[in-house]
Amino acid sequence: MCFDRTFPADAVLEFARRLESGGADELWIIEDCFYTSGPSLAAAALSVTERLTVGIGILPAVVRTAAMTAMEFATLHQLGPGRVIPGIGHGVQSWMGQMGVRPRSPLTALEEVLMAVRRLLAGETVTVHGDYVTLEKVALAAPPSPAPPVLAGVRGTRSMQLAGRAADGVVLAEGAGPAYLRWALEAAGRPDGFVAAVFASPCIMPDRREAQRTMAPWLAGLLDQPGPAVRALPFADDLLARYAQRGADGLADMPHEWWNEFGPIGTMDDARAHLAGLEAAGASHVALFPPPDLAIAREQIADVLELARR
What's residue 16's pLDDT? Predict the structure, then answer.
């Protein structure tokens, strides 16, 4: 399950404990500017659990220096050896501009940071003089062993190619389905051991159509600015035409097979089918992303636990 950026920080303890005791595998922390800090929440979750893996999706590449980011990840590994999956991404560029750290080339910045952080976590002494990363004989005092995989939170073709050469895997945001996942892995070049984590927005109800009607406005938001996850769909043109003609009402009754590409939306069996499709397409990790309503998220923990037992 994902822990939304808007939730109060202390609620992470409750979520971590309930997920672990109920048999779920992972909790993914969401860091967005200017909400709560990903490493701090991850440390709290690790400290109250013994088995739960904690992912971070994602730290903006240029907000911290590469050395400090590597230190954060190494410290989390000490708190929960083998239970940390960190992610780094471009960050929202307007937010980077607000902080005075917006890079001229987000692609170059992300690649330099990913490569430096991975080398530091591997125990290397690193000297780099790049456009965005400068290190002079820097080494971590206690590098993790083994080093955790460092994932890239990216979307488009060039960023996926970057992830394939500079990261250990990718984090795909909610709205990603099996077709987009297959496209993303192909764009990354499918390196050996490459990891794919997918966030999925759930809406599980006894009545399939009611769940789909509930999520139609959310899907409309994705289609207003269709990104790679939409463009990768084999029915993308038909879907966009349908939305242009009928709006959100036309999405509510679109073919169920189309809905299955967007998330665990429908009945519990529909949710199981969506997760099975992601796993068949190559997902290593799937995290359900609740709406930004703490009460609803607490209720959805039961759905997460049922799916974890499938």
Answer: 98
